[in-house]
Amino acid sequence: MKALQYLRHGIQQWLLPIGIVLFCTGLFVATGRTAHKTIVYLGVLAPALAMVVLSPRAALQAVFGNPVRLALVVFVFWAASSASWAVDQSESDFFIKYAVFITLFALAFSRDIGAAEEWVLPAFRVSVVLAGVYAVYSVIDWYVLGGNDWHQRFNGLPPLYNPLVTGYFMGFFLALMMSEYIACQQRRYAFVLYLPVAAAIIVMVLLTQSRTPLLAWFATAMVLALVRRNQRGWAVAVMTISGLALLLAFNETLWERGLSWRPWIWSHVFERALEKPWLGHGFGDELLIVIPQNGWLFHDPHNMHLSVFYYAGAVGLALWALLVVLAFRAAWSARHTAMGLVTLGLLVYGMVACSFDGGYLIARPRENWFTLWLPLVMAARLLDKPAGKAIR
User: Fold this and answer.
1) Does 279 map to a domain?
2) Count of domains in the chain?
3) d(CA 66, CA 110)
4) Distance, CA of 194 to CA of 197 (rounded, Å)
């Protein structure tokens, strides 16, 4: 029995916190998507599965005793099961496997069998700093060593293969930094440490010319400032507003692309969704969107909520809405704690970012897990116990 206790303790105190850092930073060192998936499997999902095997009763309690986590599990398995009316059995089984992955990911952040409470925020802090280092390296590699012109759009390094993915993925770290900076207790070193890291990430995101993270940053800063009406909150809000105002005034490239066909794509996908409004077309259905004016081809709706409606129907959309509402309610109730405020910031950033990009909902670990599943599983964690001491 003692051996099992030591094993559980080691997984919660060491393996899972290290796994969180690997999850957040794995894309920085992975040479491709397969490598990143392997990092997540070994760093997060395998330890979570081990905890489920070692503590099955606690795992069941973590799911059925937590409204947010239960809603998440019900939604992902409903969405995964929709593949049964879109593709054959051999392909639909893959989506059930993906739902298991997401469930294990949620359990990795639970209180009873997940990462230890005292190591979650420190793991995020380490990840943010490493993101700043990666941003500096990427810009130097692409523009200085790679010889690309500074006016050329930064396309991202593998497996961050395009500007949109690079933009909203790196934007996640700035949203995390803003939330953690306002919430953290440290008074002196935080600003000195975070300022160069934030500058590096901002430069990298601006070079992608992606507008989604800018809008998501603005929404996150405003919500955090209104929730925490202190010097740090207002400072973040003022700097965000000032920076965006200058950027919009002097950077014409942000306006040249217009709305990037988003309204047309959304209306087209919505019309297609109405063909099967209740149960949806099912995950695995091949969605092809062809822009008539130029022949451009897209495979996702560029809106996660619309993607849910298209693939999982009105039933899936209702389950999704319930999950999101419960998550925001949990984060709002815990907004006076550090963990609650960080979760609220990530939820705002993630939901705004997912409203303009993204469509691969039930899938193996990929970059949208940062803006989609991570904020939701963090919200579930808040209901496992009191989220922590109130912020002073």
Assistant:
1) no
2) 1
3) 10
4) 5
Inside any domain, residue 283: no
Q: Nearest-CA neighbor of 154 among 200, 204, 198?
A: 204
pTM of the model: 0.93
Strands (E), the chain: 289-290, 297-298
Q: How far apart are CA 123 and CA 380, in angstroms?
A: 18
- On the 0-12 / 13-18 / 19+ scale of CB atoms within 10 A, 280 is buried
Residue 228 φ then ψ, to 5° = -110, 90
Q: Output DSSP code: residue 46.
A: H
Q: What whole-number distance in Å separates Cα of residue 68 and Cα of residue 88? A: 31
pLDDT single digits (tens) 300-350: 888 899 999 999 999 999 999 999 999 999 999 999 898 999 999 999 999
Q: Is residue 342 part of a domain?
A: yes
Instruction: Locate 132 and state its tokens.
Output: 């700043």
> Are 73 and 106 spatial neighbours (Cβ–Cβ below 8 Å)?
yes
DSSP-assigned beta bridge partners for residue 187: none
Residue pLDDT, tens place only, 155-200: 776 777 778 888 888 999 999 988 888 887 555 666 677 889 988 9
Range of the domain at 24: 2-259+296-382
Q: For residues 103 and 260, give the distance between their C-alpha atoms in angstroms, rounded to a whole number.
A: 34
Residue 242 CB neighbours (<10 A):
10
| Phi and psi torsions of 298, nearest 5° | -125, 155
What's the CA gap between 313 and 85, in Å, rounded? 12
